[in-house]
Amino acid sequence: MKGIFRGEVPQKVDSKARVSIPAAFRRVLESGDPDYTANGRPRFVIVYGDPRNPAVECFTAAKMDQMVERIMSAPDTTPNLPLIRRIYIQMSMEAEVDDDGRIVLPPRVREKLGISPEDQAKGFEAMFAGAGDRFQLWKRDTYDERQARFAAEDIARLPEDADLMSLLGPLPAAQPGA
Question: What is the average per-residue pLDDT within 133-154?
Answer without folding.
Answer: 92
